[in-house]
Each structure stands twice: as structure tokens, then as C-alpha cells.
Amino acid sequence: MDAIILQILNGLDKGSAYALIALGLTLIFGTLGVVNFAHGALFMLGAFCAVTLNRLLTLSFETIDETKTDFLGNPMKVKTPYVEAWFGPETGAAIIDWAVPLSILFAIPIMIAIGFAMERGLIKHFYKRPHADQILVTFGLAIVLQELIKLFFGANPIPTPAPDIFRGSFDFGVLLGFDPNVIIYPYWRMVYFLFAMVIIGGVFAFLQFTTFGMVVRAGMADRETVGLLGIDIDKRFTFMFGLAAAVAGLAGVMYAPINSPNYHMGMDFLVLSFVVVVVGGMGSLPGAVLAGFLLGILESFASMTWVKDIVPGIDQIIIYLVAIIILLTRPRGLMGRKGVMED
Known about the structure:
Largest sheet: 2 strands, antiparallel
Radius of gyration: 23 Å
Helix content: 55-70%
Order of helices and strands: HHEEHHHHEHEHHHHHHHH
Strand order of the largest sheet: 1-2
Protein name: Branched-chain amino acid transport system permease protein
Shape: globular
CATH class: Mainly Alpha
Number of helices: 15
CATH architecture: Orthogonal Bundle
InterPro entries: ABC_transp_permease, BCAA_transport_permease
Distance between the termini: 46 Å
GO molecular function: transmembrane transporter activity
Structural class: mainly alpha
GO biological process, one term: amino acid transport
Number of strands: 4
Family: Belongs to the binding-protein-dependent transport system permease family. LivHM subfamily.
């Protein structure tokens, strides 16, 4: 039982990432009808927003510290971050320590602006083109963004630590009546799961309970009729593209302490996230979220040692295997809508 609970917990953080990326993919496909293969790159850009802010906050200047000397007896040069000089040592150190959560505020306007630029500058020209053309152009854009990140940040992963208060692990098993140190789970992974729940809940609440969201849902169901009512649905859909970019970016920001950002992390999640979208059902937001968590947990169970001993390499193919089974039995996915991607 303790092994089962631990694998469920391990699957939740990766499932959260799958669900957030798939949610953004589904928002774009459901509103604009575009298969966006650059969405994984948006996840990567979000992670590098955290890297960028961390570097900005740690920019330093050198001063001479007369109280410290080197082995020759000369006063030593000491680097002092600008934020510590401006706000004081304690406040400045706290700001640097909380760089990743603060990156949320830093990333939101940047990711929305990138989403608007992508949609207005490139993707709007492919609305009426075949899905194959959309895949090719957005995949090419993803490669360009990936290489730009590699150019400016290098090819090596960049460690981006979580705040000190969230480092270490929580003895989850004690709460469930198990012996101490049986079910240990990192604090930040719990934070990531809760953060994903907030973002997913916020997106669904926005679509369900706001006038803007209701119009968007109506446009997703019948775009032509909404346009005939005098509503500029195109502008609203452009905003939804920016919102989807922000969701992917925030998923990347908070994932940075779990998996050190690198230039190919977007591609690593992209294919899996598309599998999640297809399994959940193209155009189905609840399906994308459900499939994201389901496949994340299944992947976690498949990575157990005894499972890999029985079926070597199962952890590498479990998601695709499940996708094949589901699509053979339910071609539209778990919660897919009739007519979507069937033309």
C-alpha cells in the first residue's frame, strides 16, 4: 500500500505538467483550430523566465571588505547583489531566495506578449490551411526558439533552486498511519501539484463563470453564429492564445526547481502532451486534464523496478501503449467531441 501511495504521489507532479501543457494545447485547438507544435517551447520559455529573473536578482557589484584578507594579507573583494544593497541584506536575500515564485509575476506579461506575437505574426496565416501545414510551421518555430535558448543560455541544464522553506521532504506516510520515513515526498512537488490545481481551476472558472469565457465557449461550439451576433470572436480567440501561452509558461516556471531548465525540455514534454490531448479527446478541456493526470500516474507505476524487471522498457512506452488501447476502443478519446479531427 505504501508503494502504491508513493507512486501515485510521484505521478501527480508529472501529471500536473502534462495537464497544464495539454490544457493550453486544447485551448488553442478548441478556439482557433490550430495544432500548435510550438506549445512545448512555451513551457521551456516559462522555465527560462525563472532562470532569467534569478540571474537578474543575483547581479552583483564588487566592493573591498577591509575585514577579510587573502593569504597575502590584502583586503578581499566581495560581491554584493544589487537587491541586497537596495533593500538591505535580509530583505535582499529573501527576494533572491524566492526568485522562482516571483518569476510568476515576471513570466505572465512576457508569455502573454509572446503568445500574442506568435498568433498575430505567424499562426493567423495558417487558420485555413491543412493541419499538416500548421504542424510543420509550428514545429519549425519550436526548433527556432529552442536554438535561440541554446545560443543565449548554453546547452547545459541550469539549476534553479526552490525557496529554502520548500527544500527537503515531507513525511507523508505519518499522516496516513505508516511508520516514519516510509512515504517521503518533496515539498516542492506538493507545491507544484497545488499550483497546477489552482491554475486549472482558475481557467475553468474563467470559462464557466465570466461573460468573456461564456462567449469563448459559445465560439468554440459555433463560431459562425457568434460572429453573426456582432461579436468580434477573433479578438477573443487571440486573447485565449495568449492565455494558453501564459498557462504553459507558468507550468514551466514552477517546474524549474523539479527539472533544471535546458533547451530541449520543451520537446521532451511536447510529444507526450500531444498524446495526452489525443487520449483525452481533441478539443475537450476536461479530457486533457483527466488524461494528463491519468498518464502521469501510469508512467510513475511503470517506472517501478519490479515492473521494469517483468517488462523491460515499459516505462518508456506505457503512455503510447495506453494511447493505442484507448484510441482503438474510443477513437475520439476519453471525452472527445463528435466531428473533431474527423474530416
